[in-house]
Amino acid sequence: MKVKETTKTVAKIKDVSIMLIDGKEKLVPIKPICQALDVNYSSQLEKIKSDEILGSTVLLKGIVAADGKEREMACIPFKFAFGWLFTINPKNVKAEAKEQIIKYRLECYEALFNHYTDQSEFLEQKQVALEKQMEEVERIRNDFGNTKKLLDEARKALNKVKEMTFDEWQMNKRQLSIEFPN
Fold first, then answer.
1. Is 23 in contact with 33 (CB distance < 8 Å)?
2. Statement: residue 38 has pLDDT above 80
């Protein structure tokens, strides 16, 4: 069964449409992105082809261009486009795009940092919470033990009162003495 492909614009950079080919796999043509960023398409394509990961993903696809004509364009999977963009050196782009590339790379560094450190931050917070909760459980366990001891003493005193006879009361100078635990 052949999957129907659709093409849609996912972004515009300096009035250049960045297209997404949505079919069996989502693909992005690299030439329009290079044009929008004012980077050399040929060198970017060579860099992508020589990359040990991206090189095996490059496909030629027939795409209807902005002028309505179908052209073959080199595409990479959409999921790899962000990593490829990260490799673009700001020194190799025109001045107008340099700031955007630097900003994008900073965002990538931030995203990578968060991705790899969020779990360790979670584990640190979890450890602190576990230690605090274990202290609370131990405190309650001690309080419970003391309370259980007091309850046992109070039951013994109750049983003494229950078992007291009239004769014992009289022998105790008509006093009902009950010792309550502290």
1. no
2. yes
